Amino acid sequence: MRISRTLAVLTTVILTSATAQAAEITGDELKKALQENPNILIEAIKANRKAVFDIINQTGLEEQARAQREAEETGRQAYEDAFKNPFKPAIDNKTRIRGNKDAKYTLVEYSDFQCPYCASAYPTVEELRKRHGNDLRFIYKHLPLPFHTQAMPAAQWLEAVAIQSPEKAWKFHDILFKNQDKLGIDFFKKTAKDLGVDVERCEKDAESQAVKDRIAADIEEAKQFGFNGTPGFLLNGIPVKGAYPIEYFEDVIKKLAATKAN
Hints:
alpha+beta
């Protein structure tokens, strides 16, 4: 709320009411009255409490609406600008890619295995992969949040499994999101064993500097792109912050296709 503007309106209304004999109060007169009689405003507020509350409430609502309009306009502008200057995540021959490596659409997710919003986004990603088949490839990157105690260990175990088998790492990824309530070292060990990977090696690799560096690189990249919460996505470099419904992603794909056609 813009306090100075609110007080100016409020003071004018109160003093006009308090000095009904005056047809108008100019700015100079208002300023002089307050300087000479500072208690006038306090007394007037006490005498007109309901009017004061109504004015403050209405001004607050107007300010909220203005701020929301500005935020929406800023968001729209940022969305349009993203198609002109899309982000470019690090993707190389060591990057785990799910799907066709030469797909025309690349969906990168920055995620946290313990985040409930990421779990709700998981079926959306799977449905997108199903709908678009060879036209869409998926890349999972880590953004474990510090207040999720199992998020970092889960990320480390995923990377440890991937060292032995990238394909089994994707299965590990799926199982974790489908069993968020079971996350913990015992569950990681059991899942790795069920997938047929060397559990003792996973334990060592999960604590290795190479694994920690890989996760740290993902976290740093996510922050560079403005992702502070999870999930965050890049669809051909277009940022999507949050677990949006599948229709939102489809709209981005349609716009990408239209932009390329032009």
